[in-house]
Amino acid sequence: MITDSELHLQKYEPPQRSAELEVRVQRLRREAENREYKQMTQNVHRTKKIVDGNVGKELKAMNLQIIAVVNFVLTVGGAFAFGYKAAEASMEEPDMAIQMLVGILLGTVVFFADLYFLGG
Fold this sequence. Notes:
By secondary structure, the chain is an all-alpha fold. Helix content is 72%, strand content 0%. The termini are far apart. One of its GO terms (cellular component) is endoplasmic reticulum membrane. This is Transmembrane protein 199.
């Protein structure tokens, strides 16, 4: 009896959606897309903020950085010059290799000291 029998299923027809449901689904879809867009673009900064009045703050920060770089170069150069001339003054006969070595050594010490204080 089972081998001779057949199974007849009705074709599935999905129920019709109401117009109110379609409008609500479209509105929710737009809201979700807007939320996703805002989340994607939340870390994008506009250049308008700089133009609005932060130019003075930006120039002041840049000026401070330029001063720090100039100070850095002058202290390292001054330390080199001091080491070079101190080695020259301490020897009876000038030896350029020793003077350079002392100057570079002192300049390197000051260089790393400045890096330490500028970084921290």
